[in-house]
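Lab meeting minutes (informal)
Scribe: AK
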Amino acid sequence: MHSLQTLTKSFSAWVIFCCCCCLPLLLTSPLPPKGPGLASTSHHACRLRKINFQQPYIRNRTYTLAKMARVSDQDTDNRFIGQQLYVNVRENNRCYMMKRIVETVVKDVLLTEVKDRYPYVGEVAQFLASLTSELSRCKFSGQKEHMEKNLEEMKSKMKQLGENGKTKAIGELDLLFDYIENACTDTPKKGVNKKKN
């Protein structure tokens, strides 16, 4: 009888211990992400804060720089930034696509010798680089072939145009600004694709 009482007390102590100590720990510990949770994590990694685009100073610098470069652009047949970039690219991958385009424009255009030809290039390049840095965890979801093809076509066209390709890319910085805002923020700018395509 004595061993039964001891066993009952031990069991009761374990139940109380588990209820008071272990259960709260289990309820408050985060569960590892899996399935749809990963998609939402990826989704948030491909989002920029709207405040990045609400700074009139950098928007004005970007638009002014683009306008100045367009005066020297002799090619009216081609466009780098437009809906053609999104051909066969799912909507949830558009921010990643724009991130890659911004990286290309910063590295292959803004950080070259053109930075000495136009004012504000350094400021705009720094702003765009900060956006790609903020998107560093943004990953592509699915097959990349179409996105890579569209990106390579843009790069090839830019290279083919030589110096005028760089001028054209700078002349389209306002479009790039609007496209990345539209693709990477939760409240896209209405009509950006219709107005500027």
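Next up, CB showed the second protein from the same session:
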Amino acid sequence: MKVHDVEFDDIHSGRDTGAAALTSCPSEEEDMARQSNTCAGGLAFLLVFVLTSPCVPAEASDEQAKTVEFNVKPGGVVHTFSEGIGEYECSFTYASQGGTNEQWLMSVGLSDDNKMFSCSVWRPQGKSYLFFTQFKAELKGTKIEYANAYSQAAAGGQSDVPLKPEEFTIGESTVTHKDGKFSAQLSKLTVIGRTRHDEL
């Protein structure tokens, strides 16, 4: 676990046929459909994991998933919090104003086949009362397949409230606020990336 503080200005300088498979080879279309279904299933599993992860202390979790807590600190200073599993890492960089420290959680998870890495950062109480001047989530060692940002996280009977698509941008390895478009409200980020193991 790594926490870094820097001054605010620094950031700106498949189908399985069972017995039939024994008597005939699957067609290319069947192979592609099976691979597509496997990828979709893996992505769905990680999305469910990210959205439903309980708070598990890092030392009590296994090697494939962990959840850690950290404080989001106001004051206009850029902070970065990072957590990872093996060679994959998620980092959350932000600057915020107003209020006092808030307790947030970061969950990271690696699929059983090591092909998908997920990261979710959120305030467990649901809504943050801080004003975020900037944010960035970055996955190291993966290429982003899915990402979303929310002004409110699901808690206490409330649902997730996503940011408008124009408020943030999704790159190959980062999810970042858009200057002049971001409404300064952030309570949750979810990012899922495909690892380089899947490219081998």
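CB comment: The longest strand covers residues 142-152.
No objections, moving on.
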